[in-house]
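Hey,

Quick one before I head out. I ran the complex with adenosine-5'-diphosphate overnight. Inputs first:
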Amino acid sequence: DSLVKLSNITKEYGTKIKTKALDKINLEILEGEFLSIIGQSGSGKSTLLNIMGTLDRPTDGELLFKGSKISRLNDDALANFRNNNLGFVFQFHHLLPELSVLENVLIPAWITFEKKPTATIIDRAKELIVLVGVENRVNNKPNELSGGQRQRVAIARSLLNNPSLVLADEPTGNLDSDASDNIYELLRTINKELNTTFIIVTHDMHIAAKADRVIEIKDGEIVRDVSNRSKAEEE
Ligand code: ADP
Ligand code: ADP
């Protein structure tokens, strides 16, 4: 089934001097897909990810999520939509240094409920901490963790509200190749076990090539869209 569909999405920045970051992008992403986006610096990858994540609005075009037009929602409705459906992972994990691992994973619950997380949510957070493999660090602060462990915590946090789609911008950008492989394997495990759809922007061709589908962007246009699905299914 279709999860995200972009029709003629265009994004221009600036008023006087305009930069066309995306030029009539058409793209459909299916539920359960694991997709990577590659392209040179400045090609439009982050802009595309931000628009699919509703963090930024297109200048023109339509964005559909499970068939609903979400590009027309107002800011409050969009924030609500994001909280209920999307997870985000960034290159720099954006963990809060004064909070423990468990508290960091619970951040989305505070945003949603604006009150103390329930026992059910705390159990869910603990399950996710086990899933990502940092259960021996539950009460530690981020600066007591390795880079890979911090990214694992950020991944657990992105999953708290059970999103159907996780958008990741250079999730392994700050890690050495072993840690990158481990993070990739973790995302794959989540993709298989929770059927979470992943869209990852990456410079790492080794990681990008392992995705079900690889999209290359150049000057705001999709110049390549390669499916590795059959290969993935054989494994
Ligand atoms: P990538 O993620 O592939 O490096 P970006 O999406 O960040 O590419 O940028 C695409 C183009 O849009 C670039 O020319 C960049 O300079 C421009 N751009 C990105 N963000 C802004 C912004 N906030 N204001 C103006 N121009 C921007
Ligand atoms: P992972 O493989 O779990 O994702 P990394 O590969 O990023 O973690 O770990 C990088 C290195 O940091 C490893 O050799 C790991 O043993 C070490 N390390 C583990 N825990 C800590 C810590 N609390 N502080 C500093 N380094 C750590």
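The first strand starts at residue 2 and ends at 13.

Talk tomorrow,
K.
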